[in-house]
Write a structure and sequence with these properties.
ten-stranded mixed beta sheet, 8 helices, 300 residues, single chain, 18% strand, globular, 2 domains, alpha/beta, Spore Coat Polysaccharide Biosynthesis Protein SpsA, Chain A
Length: 300
Amino acid sequence: MSVLNKTAAVIVTFNRSGKLMKVLDALAAQTMRPDVVLVVDNASTDDTAELVAARAKEDPSIRHLRLPENVGGAGGFHAGMKAAYQMGAQYFWISDDDAYPEPDAIEKLHGALTDFQSENTWRPSFACSRVEWIDGSLCEMNCPRTVWDWARFVQPGKAWALVDSCSFVSVMIPRWAVAKHGLPIADYFIWFDDAEYTRRIARSYPGIFVPESRVIHDTPDNRGVNFGLVDEKSLWKFKYGARNETSFRRREGGLINVLAYVYGVRRQMRAHDVPKSLRREVYKAIFRGLSFRPKVEQAG
């Protein structure tokens, strides 16, 4: 592959070596294999390091970036994209350690990005896959957000809807977008880092949803991000999400935007009878988000 098409896969992992090996198997079977597969290891305590080292001996494209501590998905994607940028990657394929791309998933994303630009002159800021759950249904937590004129370029055989937000599960980002808009916010730790980042780079031009590129997300259950689902086990993630989105909304739309968010969160929790003790924790996280102002770091 030419330097102009050099693609780096960035996979963030933490203590899921079994699923990670399935991801590496899926990448090895791609019709358009990444030039670099960067495994960003969030200080795993299982056998991840040993297994990745063994794979790297067989496949020199695999690089193991072990971080000194667990900085969450957000910190991992920040570190991985920064390293891949310094390696000269022109395209960044970003995904989780439990998402298995179909053999042509990466090729379909790359082809859609380049074809869309050549046919319409506009250059999309990213291209994202259709993410399916293990039973083939749409994965609820990985559904991209469309813009108002999402159908502008949709046509038979090329159903590329315009979107301004997607998850970090099989998304391809061109180098120019990273150079212009910087890196994901590492301080988010987890949740909403992908939504914030794709919305940020979509300021240049929306991304595109590419349904012919498919990936299977191997999660325990198929649930979306709804505050009505908060329980003791998931509270810690929802607290990060509430803080991070509040911070983003204040940055982008001020207090009015935050109040609209609070209203929506409150309605979801009340509708599903979330215990008051858990609601209070979510509200505290929202309050912390009002003064949480993490900086955006440039890639270069």
